[in-house]
Design goal:
Elements lengths: L8 E5 L2 E8 L5 E5 L2 E4 L5 H4 L1 E7 L3 E3 L14 E5 L5 E16 L5 E9 L2 E7 L8 E8 L3 E4 L15 E3 L6 E3 L6 E3 L6 E3 L6 E3 L6 E3 L6 E3 L6 E3 L6 E3 L8 E3 L4 E3 L7 E3 L3 E3 L6 E3 L14 E3 L6 E3 L6 E3 L6 E3 L6 E3 L6 E5 L4 E5 L9 E6 L5 E6 L2 E5 L4 E5 L3 E3 L6 E3 L8 E3 L6 E3 L6 E3 L6 E3 L6 E3 L9 E5 L4 E5 L5 E2 L5 E2 L3 E6 L14 E4 L5 E4 L5 E5 L9 H6 L10 E4 L2 E4 L8 E4 L3 E4 L2 E7 L1 H6 L6 E3 L1 H4 L5 E3 L4 E5 L6 E5 H4 L7 E3 L6 E7 L5 E4 L2 E4 L5 H5 L3 H10 L20 E2 L1 H11 L3 E2 L2
Length: 759
Amino acid sequence: MRGRPGYSCATKVGRMTSYVFAGYRPDSYVAVSGTQMRLDPEFDADRDALTFEISDDDSHLGGDRYHDESGDDGNQYAVVRDAAGNVVGQGRVYVDEAWTFADEHGDMVSVYSVEIGGHSMGYIADGPVQPGNTYDIVSTHNPGTGPAYTEIDSADYDPDAANKITGTERGDSLQGGADDDTIAGNGGADTLSGGSGDDFLSGGAGGDRLSGGSGDDTLRGGVGADTLSGGTGLDIADYSDSDAAVTVELNGGTGRGGTAEGDTYTGIDGVIGSDFDDSISGFDKEGWGSDRYTNVFHGGAGDDTLSGMGGGDSLYGDEGNDVLSGGTGDDFVSGGADADTIVVDSGFGTDTVEGGEAGDDHDTLDFSDVGTPVSVTFTGDEAGSASDGADTLSFSEIERLRLTAANDSVDASGQSTGTEIDAGAGDDTLTGGSGADTLRGDGGADRLTGGGGDDHLSLGADDNAVDEVVLGNGSGSDTIAGFEAPVPDGNGGWIGADQFDVTGMLTARGAPVRSWDVQVGDDGLGNAVLTFPTGERVTMSGVAPSSMETGAQRRAAGIPCYTEGTAILTPSGYRPIEELTPGDLVMTKDNGPQPVAWIGRRVLGHRDLRAQPELKPIVIRKGLLNTERDLVVSPQHGMLVKLPGDGSERLIRAKHLVDFPGGHVTPMRGRRQVTYVHLMFDRHQIIFAEGTPSESFFPGPIGLAALDDPTLRELLQIFPGLLTDARDRYGYGAPARDYLRRRDLREHQANHGPMTLLH
């Protein structure tokens, strides 16, 4: 209560003085027990106060010691008015009885009953009396002399002011008003009402009932089973002073642990946690009824778990290793200090996530509960965006990602501080940045690109999937775990499982890296170390050097030798096919040196080969051709053979050679990428690749269908008659040899025995 000491005014006329002050109606005080009293909690001076207008010739209000209901001072006269100014009594006035009240702190106040002619007019006091507080009655007596007029405290309590109200230990009923009140119940089973305004209510010990009313209120129940009712506005349950962890479930309306034990909630929108490991969950909707506010949670110190559930929530983990989940809706989530985990749910909406930077900082953005693939792009250090196609979030201050069980993709090339990614199940594509990244593919057929920096890549050992590691110039010194090394195929060759993709890696001369460019060493712990021409290194944890020491083993692991890198016979000797340019001379079987008219390339990545496995290359082992190297060609590529019997020559497609006995021609089913190089002349030619006669590119229906659109357009600019020349059925000229169909191959083998490849 905000009381005003002294009287309102005094006016002297002759020997009489007029005094005016405010008091209390007769029904303003109620007995709590035989020894306790309380002023009406809803007392409002503007509405309930009485005005006493007394004229007297002395300075004290007299009593009625003889109990004759007339008073001892015949010169005291009063007019008593209600708050509206109406006269409710007038006449000779006196004090009938006096009480001494004491609050919990021992502060005393005297209260007097005022009568006229035996009728109660109300009460006056010599100090402030707080509405709703419970006071002990220390003493009572019939005074001969009442208080001095200068000691009377005018009753001017205004609940609409910003009041600071403190209760007792005895169970108070305290009422705030229209402004921003601070109400402390202290001990006992208190009833605290904030009214309108942004109020702070603190119940203290005991089972209290706190009602915030309108406005954005903060309710602290304290020890005991409290009932917290927020009312309208954004209302907060505050457990910052709890001596133990709390569990608050707004959806169920109950609390447990610490000072939340036994608490119940209605209209509570937010929670402030304790300094311990709290668990706080919201309601699965937006607000209570028409009160459309969503959850605002502050975890405080400790390792907290905050779950916003439905609606657009604001979650603040504060200190500690917190787990925060915004749920559905458009949420703001801030981990605060230390290593936090922000969990993203299906239907997550348009969220904003801040990991926080202080303390033991290593924050995780966890998508493992999202049921659809996510795509994550870093636009700077620890910052970027993510989407599942329907919902989108932006994030900052995130050091680690945990992905879904679907086919996710992460592009962290935009950051330099190092990224840690756990991909989970699914066929994931992970690209690191220029820092030291840790990429874990886990289950599924994953494609991992470490990028710059010294990265650690984990492929998921024994996951029965073909993983791919992409290397490039400047990729640093990487460590790879879980790489499944090539194994013998039973026919003197090797079958690869996991693959390297080095299509973007060049030697110092600018040529594509081939298997013989790679040096194989030992890290001193029995792990293979691959060193590439421009200094990049890969340590293959768990793979012995003997598993990668031969060119065939490295080729089986995806480091190419042929296709790109295939040696083509020219007048000056064998040259790598990628070094040839249009106009260079190449030796042909039928016409000697001939200039190359066109060179085309087509790169097929993992997804291309997975969608069209029939395009995976064929390897012809060196034992079949009496060469030192395997020859890798496309399935449709024609190899020159001599037919048994008449000795005539035919072209047989590589995919049909797979039917030859001995297993020397096999499809590369584990291959994850390939670059096909096409050499075309003014007419179809037989050329020599790795010493073996085979065809140049022939632009028939099959050959043209194998080209992508840009390559086909380029070819048609050089040979515009390919699709319009009607002079022959090919629009280019006849093949250098006829093609042998699969059924013809079987027939010749049945009638004449095995064929031989020409050398």
